[in-house]
Amino acid sequence: MRFAFALSLFAMTMIAKSTEYETLEKLIADTWHPHHVEVSWEPLFGDTLLLRELSDVRAVSEIEKVAHGMLTLILEGAAPSGELRRVTLKGNARVFGDAWTVNQRIKPGAQVSLESLESFRCEWTGLRDAALLDINAITGKLAVRPLIPGRVILDSDVKSKPLIRAGDSVTMNYVENGITIRITGVALKDGAPGDRIAIRVPDVEQKRLEGVVEDDATIRWVP
Predict the structure, then answer these.
(1) Do 134 and 183 fall into the same domain?
(2) Could you tell me which of 147, 114, 121, 124 has the C-alpha nearest to residue 67?
(3) How many domains does the chain have?
(4) Tens digit of pLDDT for each residue in 121-144?
(5) Residue 164 placed within a domain
(6) Do 15 and 36 share a domain, yes or no?
(7) Among residues 10, 89, 133, 173, which one has the fewest Cβ atoms lying within 10 Å of its Cβ?
């Protein structure tokens, strides 16, 4: 009889914990919205059963949108009395979702085409960088390193196609107080939008200035 009671109590505790794990897993998964992911919570510190006493539970601390596994969560919810209470939990969050890979090896510097991509389900936990989830963020980009079938394409694996090539004549703009100063120079390296590159400017004392490549292939001077 005692064994049956103990077994029943254990089962009830596990069901309660499972319910609170679902709350945590949903909070973590929501950080990737609108992308759908599945999360598995493995506790390390803190009592998840404390969440049973709270309603409208939300994350107070920011949940970073990367899959490094170990997370510390500071949660807040309303107690039956209406008082706000906080619970701190630490655990490993295993994250699973759809990502992109290639169906054939792509060498560095080659352009990634739509036809070379395919979706697959994988575990994101432990990736060295954020996975690229939007196919438009990959298509047309250039491979930074070899892209291999079955390996997730990460943010650091591709780069934008250069708007400016080394040796191109470029215009650098400097804007201050509504006044724009334009300088013509020669790009010293390739550059895509957002890249910081140097240009050679014979007419200035330093002979060399640096700026950020804009979408219209001009350079915004960065002092």
Answers:
(1) no
(2) 124
(3) 3
(4) 988 877 777 788 889 889 999 999
(5) no
(6) yes
(7) 10
